[in-house]
Amino acid sequence: MANSKLKLLYFEDRGRAEVSRIILAAAGKEYEDVRFSFEDWPKFKPETPYGQAPALSVDGVVYAQTLAINGFLAREFGFHGQDNLETFKIDEIAQLWEDFFTPAINVLFYSEDERAKEAGIKKIREESAPRTLTFLEGILAKNGTGYYVSDRLTLIDILVFEGVNGGTCSQFLDASEYPLIQKNFELVRANERIASYMATRKDSQW
Question: Beta 6-11 vs 32-36: how paired, if at all?
Fold first, then answer.
């Protein structure tokens, strides 16, 4: 992958592509960061396999699906499991996160009924978000290294870091009462390449 040409296609916002961008930043990998407005999306949509973004072009071949892209980049650049069980654990926690993230996104952006949207947001704030944070805090406590898996930076640390740091669903995730999540956040932020990227990345509404 060192010499592969990568092109990441997504909207101007952070959204579902930001974890991939942070992985690439942490890896020090140069890539083409193609961003487009919602108005320009129809021009790029035909380039994607399933008419969805994000998409990742690897040496001219385009792949899709957020979990698959993140997993691929994490494996290629050393942020995934070093054995099958570590990989299993990382995939497990990534799915746990997705179980929170996807319903939250659906409530925020796809609720047509205002009452249903308000009820959904209330449920996320009072139930889904605390439950997810409690699970994550417990995983950190059990692992005991400051990281979610093993004793090093992996996909999960980056995933949660972005989630509580201005990501699309960060408005629901108050980690102030979760000291291990806060400690993990600081470990990720201390990564020199990630810190450099965070200092220069574009502002985004989501």
Answer: parallel
pTM reported for the whole predicted model:
0.94
Distance CA(158)–CA(176), nearest Å, equals: 18
How is residue 16 written in tokens? 């579902």
Determine phi and psi for 57, rounding to 5 degrees. -95, 125
Specify which residues 63 forms β-bridges with: 56
Contact 134, 175 (CB under 8 A): no
Half-sphere exposure (Cβ direction) of 69: Cα atoms closer than 13 Å = 30
Q: Tokens standing for 77? A: 């650049």
Intra-chain end-to-end CA distance of the chain, in Å: 30
Chain segment 105-159, per-residue pLDDT in tens: 888 777 778 888 888 888 988 999 999 999 999 999 999 999 999 999 999 999 9
Structure tokens at 140: 């950190």
Query: Could you read off the pLDDT of 26-41 as tens digits, one per residue?
Result: 999 999 999 999 999 9
- Cα 99 to Cα 153: distance, rounded to the nearest angstrom: 22
